[in-house]
Every structure is written in structure tokens, then in C-alpha cells.
């Protein structure tokens, strides 16, 4: 008895992945094994970088807060320590946004903790 192979499902799987690799360069878009490896590695990068993105943004917020705090003769660590001591719970994302887009509000916060 011949071996039963579900060609319909196999071809559908190949087509699905080749559609997702559309726009890639060279063999990465049309050679099945290369495209499959590229696609899977891309998923790995996407998973990793969803976590790295959080680190990068936190670092950016800290740099922005530090730059704004130094305009008022404070360092980042002094400002964050003073905020904690004063019981002001404001996260770095909001604080960095205030420092960039609303300097007078940031100055009010700095004056409050000084």
C-alpha cells in the first residue's frame, strides 16, 4: 500500500510561510528551506526585541530626566531619591514626557522635592 501523504496541507503550510517572507531579499523569499529558516529566526528576534524595547525606552527616559534635572542643579539619582522621600509616585515615562513637552510642570515637581 502506498504511503499516504497530505500534500494539500503540506503545500498550504509552505505557501503560508512563503507569503510571510514576501519582500525579503534573494532566496530568502522563494526557496522553501531558506525562507523557513529566515522566518523562524525573525520570530525569535521579534520575541527577544519585545523585551529589549522596554530596556531601551527605560534608558531613554532616564537620560531625558537626567538632562532636565541638571538644568535645576540636580542629578538624576538625587531627583529620584528626593521624589521617593517626598512620597511622589510618578513613573519615569511620565516624568520624561513632562521634561520634554512640559518643562514648567517638571520644574514644579523639582521645586516641590527640593
TrEMBL record:
Top-level taxon in the UniProt lineage: Bacteria
Keywords carried by this UniProt record: Ribonucleoprotein, Ribosomal protein, RNA-binding, rRNA-binding
Keyword match Cell division: no
This protein's record includes keyword Metal-binding: no
Annotated signal sequence range: none
One CC-aspect GO term: ribosome
Annotated Pfam families: Ribosomal_L20
Any GO BP: ribosomal large subunit assembly
InterPro entries in the cross-refs: Ribosomal_bL20, RIBOSOMAL_L20_CS, Ribosomal_protein_bL20_C
Assigned protein family: Belongs to the bacterial ribosomal protein bL20 family.
Protein name (record): Large ribosomal subunit protein bL20
Species classification: Bacteria, Pseudomonadati, Bacteroidota, Bacteroidia, Bacteroidales
Gene name linked to the record: rplT
Amino acid at each position: 500500500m502506498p504511503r499516504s501523504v497530505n500534500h494539500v496541507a503540506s503545500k498550504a503550510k509552505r505557501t503560508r510561510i512563503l507569503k510571510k517572507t514576501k519582500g525579503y531579499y534573494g532566496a530568502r523569499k522563494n526557496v522553501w528551506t531558506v525562507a523557513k529558516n529566515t522566518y523562524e529566526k525573525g520570530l525569535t528576534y521579534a520575541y527577544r526585541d519585545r523585551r529589549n524595547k522596554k530596556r531601551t525606552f527605560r534608558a531613554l527616559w532616564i537620560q531625558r530626566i537626567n538632562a532636565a534635572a541638571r538644568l535645576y542643579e540636580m542629578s538624576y539619582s538625587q531627583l529620584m531619591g528626593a521624589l521617593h522621600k517626598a512620597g511622589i509616585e510618578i513613573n519615569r515615562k511620565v516624568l520624561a514626557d513632562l521634561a520634554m513637552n512640559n518643562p514648567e510642570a517638571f520644574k514644579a515637581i523639582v521645586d516641590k522635592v527640593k
